[in-house]
Design goal:
Helix content: 25-40%
Order of helices and strands: EHEHEHEHHEHHEHHEHEH
Radius of gyration: 17 Å
CATH class: Alpha Beta
Largest sheet: 8 strands, parallel
Shape: globular
Number of strands: 8
Distance between the termini: 6 Å
Strand order of the largest sheet: 7-6-5-4-3-2-1-8
Structural class: alpha/beta
CATH architecture: Alpha-Beta Barrel
C-alpha cells in the first residue's frame, strides 16, 4: 500500500528562528493527519532546529542535498553521517536546481543514490524534462535516461529506500503546472519503466511524487490520479497555511493506492 507523501522543500529560505516558527505551525496544524507522510526539508543551518520541533511526531526531516563520500576535502558539502547525526530521515537528490545551477549530472545523482540506500536515509530522487525537451517530443527519452543512469546498480530491495519525484523543469517556480492528465501520463510511464527493470511488485510499491508549482488549488486534482503518490512542494510550503491546505488535500483522509 503506497501511503502518500507530502514533502516541503524550503530551498534557500528561512533563518533558524523563522524555521522554528514554521516547523512549529506545521507540526501543530498537521497533528492527527494520518492519511499521508509529511517531510520537511529546511536549509542545513536549520536542520537540528526543525528536528527538535517535530520530535515525537510522524513528521520526517530531510536534507536538500548530500555528497556521496562520508568525509573528505569537499568544501561546502555535507555527508550522510552528518545528516543522520542532525536527525534527518531522508534526503533530496538530483533536484533540477542542483542540475541546472550546480552542474549535477545523472552520474553524480547515481553516486549519491547508491550511497543513500546503504544508509538510514530515504532518497527522494528527482527527475524531469526541460521545456525544450518537452517541445522536442523527448519527454520519455529524457525520463528513461535519467532513471537508467540515476538508478544504475540498484537492486530490487534497494527500491524500498527510494521515493521518486517527477518535476517538469518548466513548471518549477513558474506558476505553470502540468495538468493532472499530463502528470499522470509521465508517472505511468515511470512506473512502467520500473516494472520492466525491477518487476511489477517493486514498481507497484514505489511512491512517485509530483513537483512543479504545486498549490492548494491544484493538489486535489493531482492526487486523484492513480500513479501520483504525493507532492514535492516548493514555494507553497513556505507559509504554514498554504502547506497545511496541501497536506489536507483530502480532509476525510486518503488510503494507500
Amino acid at each position: 500500500m503506497r501511503i502518500p507523501v507530502i514533502a516541503g522543500n524550503w530551498k534557500m529560505h528561512k533563518t533558524t528562528e523563522e524555521a522554528r516558527s514554521l516547523a512549529r505551525a506545521i507540526r501543530d496544524g498537521a497533528a492527527g493527519a494520518t492519511h499521508c507522510r509529511i517531510v520537511l526539508a529546511p536549509p542545513f543551518t536549520a536542520l537540528t532546529t526543525v528536528v527538535a520541533e517535530v520530535k515525537g511526531t510522524p513528521i520526517l526531516v530531510a536534507g536538500q542535498n548530500v555528497h556521496w563520500e562520508t568525509k573528505g576535502a569537499f568544501t561546502g558539502e555535507v555527508s550522510i553521517p552528518m545528516l543522520e547525526e542532525a536527525g534527518c530521515r531522508a534526503v533530496i537528490i538530483g533536484h533540477s536546481e542542483r542540475r541546472q545551477y550546480f552542474g549535477e549530472t545523472d552520474e553524480t545523482v547515481n553516486r549519491k543514490v547508491l550511497a543513500a540506500v546503504k544508509s538510514s536515509l530515504t532518497a527522494i530522487v528527482c527527475i524531469g524534462e526541460t521545456l525544450a525537451e518537452r517541445e522536442a517530443g523527448r519527454v520519455h527519452d529524457v525520463i528513461e535516461q535519467q532513471l537508467a543512469v540515476g538508478l544504475a546498480g540498484l537492486t530490487d530491495r534497494d527500491l524500498s529506500h527510494i521515493i521518486l519525484a517527477y518535476e517538469p523543469v518548466w513548471a518549477i517556480g513558474t506558476g505553470r503546472t502540468a495538468s493532472p492528465e499530463i502528470a499522470q501520463e509521465v508517472h505511468r510511464a515511470i512506473r512502467d519503466w520500473l516494472a520492466r527493470e525491477f518487476g511489477d511488485e517493486e514498481a507497484r510499491g514505489i511512491r512517485i511524487l509530483y513537483g512543479g508549482s504545486v498549490k492548494p488549488e491544484n493538489i486535489s486534482d493531482l492526487m486523484r490520479q492513480p500513479d501520483i503518490d504525493g507532492a514535492l512542494v516548493g514555494g507553497a510550503c513556505l507559509e504554514a497555511e498554504s502547506f497545511l491546505r496541501i497536506i489536507r488535500y483530502n480532509a476525510a483522509g486518503a488510503g494507500g493506492k
